[in-house]
Design a protein that fits this description.
This protein is α/β, with parallel strands linked by helices. The mean pLDDT is about 95.
């Protein structure tokens, strides 16, 4: 089995301050769990953030599914991120030309750049998408994940697409922190891999989502962070369930960690 550097060791390889912070946060907090808080009211996101916050390294949201977004929401979320020491990830999946994504990131109703530590984007439009987002995000010390693979059935991603996405990221190491992918893509220890489509039992949902277990994601596929939504938020006891995922994630990380 391939032995890997610890999260703390990998912080030294990051060229982006936020990526470094994330690796150290994961190491200090002993969590590689990201909660996907896919609920549609601000108070429900905030309640999840307060309750599950101590267990996670990242809280991921889709701000555009909130029915009652207002400008106080990001401020409240930031307070909870500081209180519980997690990063905020807006799963916006930008996918347009550089000039448009720049506006989508900074302007509009949401002002995503003002509060999201991490955002993600498709590499499909070409490297201008990264340049556009970077013009806004770099000075705010934000980080970008490129989508190299998706978890959904019958998606059009290929191995070659993932490799070209990696090559694109390599052009912007000061802003790109890693990938949304199902597996590790490179031997450079500075990249962070986050994997959605994770539940304690492998399976599918009725709309094509495909689940792997924390062990498959972190041990077999060498990813770094498990992103879990319904596996936790639909549980009767969300905190107890989050703890199960956190333990499973940390145990899986330690299987092939060098430290
Ligand atoms: P789930 O409830 O654990 O299935 O939620 C998964 C979340 O991750 C959800 O917010 C998706 O939008 C997100 N996601 C995903 O499921 N698969 C992907 O490939 C990407 C994002 Br990229």
């Amino acid at each position: 089995m391939q032995v890997r550097f610890s999260y703390a060791e990998r912080a030294a390889y990051c060229k982006n301050a936020l990526a470094k912070k994330l690796f150290l946060l994961m190491d200090g907090k002993k969590s590689n769990l990201a909660l996907s808080a896919d609920v549609t009211h601000c108070e429900d996101v905030l309640a999840l953030a307060d309750k599950i916050g101590p267990e996670i390294c990242i809280l991921k949201i889709h701000v555009d599914i909130l029915e009652d977004f207002d400008q106080t929401f990001p401020l409240e979320l930031r307070k909870l991120a500081d209180k519980h020491n997690f990063l905020i990830f807006e799963d916006r999946k930008f996918a347009d030309i550089g000039n448009t994504v720049k506006l989508q990131y900074e302007k509009g109703i949401y002002h995503i750049a003002d509060w999201a530590d991490i955002i993600n984007a498709h590499s499909l439009p070409g490297s201008g998408i990264v340049s556009g987002l970077m013009e806004v995000g770099l000075k705010k010390q934000r980080g970008l994940l490129l989508l190299a693979e998706m978890s959904s059935a019958n998606n059009l991603f290929t191995k070659d697409y993932a490799m070209q996405t990696l090559r694109m990221a390599e052009q912007f190491p000061e802003f790109v922190i890693g990938f949304i992918s199902q597996q590790k893509l490179s031997d450079d220890p500075g990249w962070i891999y986050m994997t959605p489509g994770v539940q304690l039992q492998a399976g599918t949902d009725v709309l094509g989502q495909q689940y792997v277990t924390p062990e498959i994601a972190l041990v077999k596929h060498q990813s770094d962070i498990i992103i879990v939504g319904r596996g936790i938020i639909k549980a009767e006891d969300t905190l107890a369930e989050a703890r199960k995922y956190r333990e499973a994630g940390w145990k899986a990380y330690n299987v092939n960690c060098a430290k």
